[in-house]
Amino acid sequence: MVIDARDVKLALGDGAARVEILKGVSLQVGAGERVAILGPSGSGKSSLMAVLSGLESASGGSIRVAGAEIMGLSEDELAEARRGRIGIVLQAFHLIPTMTALENVAVPLELAGHADPFGEAKRELEAVGLGHRVTHYPTQLSGGEQQRVALARALAVRPALIFADEPTGNLDASTGEAVVELLMRRLAETGATLVLITHDQELATKCSRVIRMRDGVIVSDEAVTAEVVA
Ligand SMILES: Nc1ncnc2c1ncn2[C@@H]1O[C@H](COP(=O)(O)OP(=O)(O)OP(=O)(O)O)[C@@H](O)[C@H]1O
């Protein structure tokens, strides 16, 4: 089991401003699954990803991710728990603008104590078809290329789990499709498990399981068939 989350709650704000965002979410995800999370805007998809990935502390429940219990950890401990276990890909690519593509991908490898971070980063960029772009800075790359660098960075340390939040949201349809194909291929090659947040029904069909959220809870959880996403 790569994710074992039980009765997860998230409330933000105090007093009258307190908002319950996740109202008891339970989710188990096995190794190699590709899970799409669909749901209307504001239903809690990004919040769920934030607590499962340890970017935000849940207010209640239990969360075990890639073998680590993450409830109740401090920010430093959460960062440590994420390192090497979890890769994150977001809609905005979040590359470091002052670093080349190669340096961006080398950062997590260096943090993980890899013996040859730059050699490995180069191989990783070659695997996403960017062997000819290693010395380019993010502003010198197209949106699709930047997202491929972000994919290479997320996968470089061979995490058990990749979270992707609207990874094609800033890309045109055909570029987005190419990035998703690449993501799926690299997942198959590395064996990583995927949790993908999307508004895109079409994209959800590329996954093995579709979870729908509404108003802070999971309302359906089904294996992908043509009917589920119709
Ligand atoms: N820091 C915060 N303080 C208070 N409310 C918040 C905070 N962050 C998110 N929310 C609220 O929590 C709810 C869930 O937000 P979340 O971003 O998880 O939804 P989402 O399903 O990912 O939406 P979208 O598809 O629009 O990204 C929303 O109503 C949002 O306004």
TrEMBL record:
Which Pfam families does the record cross-reference, listed alphabetically? ABC_tran
The taxonomic lineage of its organism, from the top, reads: Bacteria, Pseudomonadati, Pseudomonadota, Alphaproteobacteria, Sphingomonadales
Q: Which family does it belong to?
A: Belongs to the ABC transporter superfamily. Macrolide exporter (TC 3.A.1.122) family.
InterPro entries in the record: AAA+_ATPase, ABC_transporter-like_ATP-bd, ABC_transporter-like_CS, ABC_transpr_LolD-like, MacB-like_ATP-bd, P-loop_NTPase
**Transmembrane domains' residue ranges:** none
What range(s) does the ABC transporter domain occupy? 3-228
Q: Which PROSITE patterns match?
A: ABC_TRANSPORTER_1 (PS00211), ABC_TRANSPORTER_2 (PS50893)
One Gene Ontology cellular component: membrane protein complex
Descriptive protein name: ATP-binding cassette domain-containing protein
Q: Which domain of life is it from?
A: Bacteria
Q: Show the GO MF annotations.
A: ATP binding; ATP hydrolysis activity; transmembrane transporter activity
Keywords tagged on the record: ATP-binding, Cell inner membrane, Cell membrane, Membrane, Nucleotide-binding, Transport
